[in-house]
Amino acid sequence: MLRRPDKSKLSSSAGHAEGDPDEELARLSLIAALTLEDVEQVRNRNKGKSRADAPVDDEMIAFELFAAEAAALDTMASDIRFAQSLDKALESDGRLLDDLARAEETCRRDREFAIALSKGQTYRYEPVPVQRPQSASTSALHITNSPATAVAAVPKVIAPASSNRWVLLLLQELTSRPRAESCVICRDVIEGSVIRVPCGHTYDVGCLVDLFRAATVDESLFPPACCRKPFVLQEVRVYLDSNLQKVVDKKTIEFGTKNRVYCHRPTCSTFIGAATASATNMLCPTCYYYTCGHCKAAAHTLTFRCTSSEDAAVVALAEQAGWKRCPGCGHLVELSFGCYHMTCRCRHQFCYLCTATWKTCKCTQWDENRLVAAAEDRVQRQGVQAPARGGNAVDFRQRVAREAERLRDDHDCGHRWKYVTGERRCEGCGHYLRVFLFNCVWCHIWLCARCRNNRWM
User: Fewer CB atoms < 10 Å away: N or C end of the chain?
Assistant: First the structure.
């Protein structure tokens, strides 16, 4: 049996002020608490008295509905308390905002009055009226206590009577407060300036500066970008010191030059400019030695037709090893395994067989041996041991066959990254990380945060 709420407790809580919202709210909370206590007692008594697979009878359904109503009554009482506290806060803050706005309006009218007097104009000065925001009012909570159910009727809470601008200003202030942002590189909460980059990620100043400094010595990080979307230099320039800004400007010119000439002195190696079609003496701005713009050796007489025996040896080695020269920048590239789709560090994409721009030729995309090697590499990255290391040969070959077929359909992995804690070496830069890395769930490559977000690879 469910007990009725104690009338003495109800009368004592309501006897001081009949119809007072605070008193009736206290009585509502007491009814909810006593009802939930009865529900819990009934549940404890009924434990273990029926089979688990027994059908639910009407009495149990009615009891569960009653329990849900009691829980809803308790939640409603809590919501009313929260609404009343919010109403009080709005009233106190509204008065403060009203005073500030009134003072600002008074200053504006005083200024207009002073300007009118200085020009000899008449000005009708009217004091700023005092406008106090009305407080929200809550109607009395009319509670009916039926002897059969002891369930309270839903109280009617009247919304704030005033929807003036002070309440809106306060809500604007509460909703416009910036939430804590974390840096995409170091994963720490950003304290200070939050730098949002074109892809939507956020950086702190330290990681941004570190990236730009690293990009000046590592061309695969230049231009500084996140998720293959370059930073807008003019927007982040303010966070770089003057020396770093100058270095970035110089590297922008250097890395933007395809066929480059560097000072021939190994102890200098300063970038001088673009190569020339014929012999040209180019002055190094650092050591003031001259370098030939054609053969890239020490300067010589312009009438001498220069050739490079070193270049000839490198070309012969490249022919023997099967290397290809990037048609975009002239650098030699080597294909170890994978498809014939090559992406040079200058970001030029070409076919490894004919060096034509990618998707403009009719060459095959794969060499079967390289395809199988790439598939075996992915399978072993998944933790499957090769037969040479004691793994199951049949299972390994089946997995390799499935992976090879997947590579034929989609050889360019779009990468779906998973955050993994622990120690491991980054396969992009070779650094050993001791806290966390990112692992692609498709190709299973391991990269650090910088290589994942910033490296052009």
Answer: N
